[in-house]
Write a structure and sequence with these properties.
This protein has 98 residues and is of the alpha+beta class. The chain contains 2 helices and 2 strands.
């Protein structure tokens, strides 16, 4: 999906100098069953980190680094939608979820 976005932005901008920042990406630990689970969140976030750390670029733009911001560090119990409360890496006591 990142590759398609980069290709589209290059075409629209008419310029190869496109920077990509992925903000608020993640996977819910609960709230959208059967898709949300601690295991699915662990897999998604670990594969994302692995890709960014090891690959650090897209195949189209081998020289380009990608900034990624994982959503979310802690549960937000005050959010209205249950699924939005559970994109977490840590419990409130700083213990890792996965």
């Amino acid at each position: 999906m990142v590759e398609a976005f980069v290709a589209t932005m290059v075409r629209v901008m008419g310029n190869e100098d496109v920077k990509v920042v992925l903000s608020e990406t993640g996977w819910p630990t609960t709230g959208y069953e059967p898709y949300s689970s601690i295991e699915n969140a662990r897999i998604y976030n670990s594969k994302l980190r692995e890709h960014v750390i090891r690959v650090e670029r897209t195949s189209r733009k081998a020289y380009m680094n990608i900034e990624v911001y994982i959503f979310e560090m802690f549960n937000e119990n005050h959010k209205a939608e249950r699924v939005k409360r559970n994109f977490v890496s840590f419990y409130p006591d700083f213990i890792e979820v996965y």
